[in-house]
Specification:
It is a single chain. It contains two helices and 23 strands. By secondary structure, the protein is mostly beta strands. Strand 13 and strand 14 form a beta hairpin. The chain is globular, with a radius of gyration of 22 Å.
Length: 372
């Protein structure tokens, strides 16, 4: 049961693309803090989204083509047990990203529009375990991010050809939380608050290749604060029930370049807050093999969305196989998500410019862990 218990975090972290709010790619779990002894892990995966639709009739109703590109991700974690009560962890992950590209020559409304965002977050945590089963944890988070957005197509009117580059920049935040454990039934609950992280990006804005300002400006962007509630309990010998609830304050994630905001009367991206639910069951089959299955649900929000995040809610299933041998643990998994229909909009008043329907995503991943 112990090896099954500590293996299930890999299912949630590595094999399931998060996709919350359209740009989240990792759930920022602290599960590694509960591994036994000293532990190190490496993970990687690949996600293939299928997001497409058609322009509205005003723009001819033509197909947009595939607008979400495949992407890869990686993760690293190290946990150190100082004594029976004090432990620490370092977590490296890529929680936010975007690879959206409306093919030029496809959509009349949005063709040539693209958004590329990359981020890597480093989290250093300490955990102190109390004698009554409770524990507290907290630490610092550092994030490095950059991005580029290009707007193109008839839907943008005179702003078609606008481009903004956000240079790579660091931001800092914190995490804090509490947990409770009862090892004899493999029960555990943890609650973690992740603060927002503010980046001040050096910004270059152009229109049709011509600079829109005499010098670079600064665009302040906050990656959103969030709450993570994670739990598990044994429900039968060798069988574990697990799940999580994650709330993200996406409404504070705004990208408002100075010149664009003045011209358009609003920013580039506005997203709805999300709450994501995961529930699953894990089962130990032999001394070496375990498996797990989980279901993910995120309620749809407003149908009108940013063209740079053209999905709305999701439902999905993840399957994982976990192999343990001596001090090694290998987790492989696959996830399938049905992404909610969405209507990309531009301008004021907000009006749909395209209709994205029947989108989905397939993710595969592997994680290798070693205890010492």
């Amino acid at each position: 049961m112990t090896r099954l218990t500590t293996g299930l975090g890999a299912l949630l972290l590595t094999t399931a693309p998060a996709l919350a709010g359209g740009i989240e790619r990792a759930p920022q779990s602290i599960a590694i803090l509960f591994e036994q002894g000293n532990y190190v892990e490496f993970g990687a995966g690949r996600v293939s989204p299928d997001v497409s639709g058609r322009d509205v009739a005003l723009f001819g109703g033509g197909a947009t083509g595939e607008v979400a590109e495949d992407y890869s991700f990686f993760g690293f974690g190290y946990k150190h047990q100082f004594n029976d009560q004090l432990s620490a962890a370092l977590i490296v992950e890529q929680p936010y990203g975007a690879d959206i590209n409306y093919p030029a020559g496809g959509s009349l409304a949005l063709g040539g529009t693209y958004a590329y965002v990359d981020s890597t977050t480093y989290t250093a945590l300490l955990r102190y375990k109390l004698d009554n089963g409770f524990g507290i944890h907290g630490g610092v988070r550092g994030s490095r991010a950059d991005g580029e957005v290009n707007l193109s197509g008839l839907a943008y009117g005179g702003l078609s050809g606008y481009n903004v580059e956000l240079d790579s920049e660091w931001g800092w935040g914190y995490a804090v939380g509490a947990s409770w454990e009862r090892p004899d039934i493999a029960a555990r609950v943890s609650l973690t608050f992740n603060s927002s992280i503010e980046h001040d990006f050096d910004t270059t804005e152009t229109l049709g290749g011509a600079p829109l300002a005499a010098e670079e400006s600064t665009t302040t962007v906050k990656t959103p604060r969030s709450w993570n509630l994670e739990g598990q309990t044994g429900i039968a010998p060798g069988t574990l029930l697990f799940g999580s609830i994650r709330w993200v304050n996406w409404s504070e994630f705004r990208v408002d370049p100075e010149v664009f905001t003045g011209l358009a009367g609003g920013g580039l991206v506005e997203l709805d807050d999300t709450t994501t639910y995961v529930i699953g069951v894990g089962r130990k089959f032999t001394d070496n093999w375990s498996g797990a299955a989980s279901f993910t649900y995120e309620k749809s929000g407003d149908d009108l969305v940013s063209p740079l995040a053209p999905t709305n809610g999701r439902k999905g299933i993840s399957l994982a196989a976990i192999y343990t041998q001596d001090k090694w643990k290998v987790t492989t998994g696959v996830s399938y998500f049905k992404l909610g229909d969405a209507d990309p909009e531009t301008g004021t008043p907000d009006v749909a410019r395209a209709l994205m329907r029947d989108s989905d995503a397939l993710g595969v991943g592997v994680k290798v862990g070693y205890s010492f």
